[in-house]
């Protein structure tokens, strides 16, 4: 979103997959930071600072609608990545940057209408911290954005529902209209 706002000539199309980083107008979106960003922050920093099988698994479980979707193979792969010194140093910077700031690092909701790139807001029904209402609101705020909600998935629909995820993203990128179409725009407010 930040790149699309600040360097629109660099963005041909934008896919926002259970996107974070929007500073919602107070009282407009039902967010639950204790199960959303705060818990992700805690689990991400634990996994990167003490990358053992348990901390890595806990972080991955946050991404899924059901913990049993986290396979041993996925944990093993992530465990190896988190324990690689170069990858760990890089991910430490990413996590600390992602979770280090507050509302000042977020994009005000009143600014997202300036996004000009064709946009797909891809959300899920079990995204931790902010449900489909957040995705719908974001799609309504971006001119011409399309919206799709993946059912029975959380923050990683690309893992939990890969066929649906890939079909929707590919359709959008090739110029097709997404099945759920554009969200109702009657509630959109511009500043």
Radius of gyration: 17 Å
Segments where pLDDT lies below 50 for 5+ residues?
A: 181-191
Please state how the strands of the largest beta sheet are arranged side by side. 1-4-5
Coarse structural class = mainly alpha
Query: Which shape, going by the Cα principal axes?
Result: globular
What percent of residues adopt helix (DSSP H or I)?
Answer: 40-55%
CATH homolog superfamily of the largest domain: Alpha/Beta hydrolase fold, catalytic domain
CATH topology of the largest domain: Rossmann fold
Describe this structure in words.
This protein has helices at 2-6, 37-49, 53-62, 72-83, 85-100, 132-141, 157-160, 162-173, and strands at residues 14-17, 22-23, 107-108, 119-124, 146-150. It has 191 residues and is mainly alpha-helical. It folds into two domains: 2-31 and 107-173, Alpha/Beta hydrolase fold, catalytic domain (Rossmann fold, 3-Layer(aba) Sandwich), CATH 3.40.50.1820; 37-100. It has a three-stranded parallel beta sheet with strand order 1-4-5, sandwiched between helices. Strands 2-3 form a two-stranded parallel ribbon. The protein starts with a helix and ends in an 18-residue tail after the last helix.
């Amino acid at each position: 979103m930040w790149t699309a706002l600040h360097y629109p000539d660099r963005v041909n199309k934008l896919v926002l997959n259970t996107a974070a980083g929007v500073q919602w107008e107070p009282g407009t979106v039902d967010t639950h930071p204790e199960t959303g960003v705060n818990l992700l922050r805690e689990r991400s920093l634990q996994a990167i600072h003490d990358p053992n099988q348990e901390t890595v698994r806990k972080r991955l479980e946050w991404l899924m609608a059901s913990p049993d979707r986290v396979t041993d193979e996925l944990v093993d792969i992530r465990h190896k990545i988190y324990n690689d010194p170069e990858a760990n140093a890089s991910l430490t910077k990413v996590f600390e940057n992602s979770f280090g700031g507050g509302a000042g690092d977020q994009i005000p909701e009143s600014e997202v209408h300036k996004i000009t790139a064709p946009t797909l807001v891809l959300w899920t029904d079990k995204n931790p911290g902010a449900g489909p209402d957040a995705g719908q609101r974001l799609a309504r705020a971006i001119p011409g954005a399309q919206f799709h909600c993946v059912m029975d998935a959380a923050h990683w629909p690309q893992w939990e529902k890969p066929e649906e995820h890939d079909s929707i993203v590919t359709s959008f990128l090739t110029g097709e209209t997404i099945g759920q179409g554009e969200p109702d725009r009657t509630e959109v407010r511009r500043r």
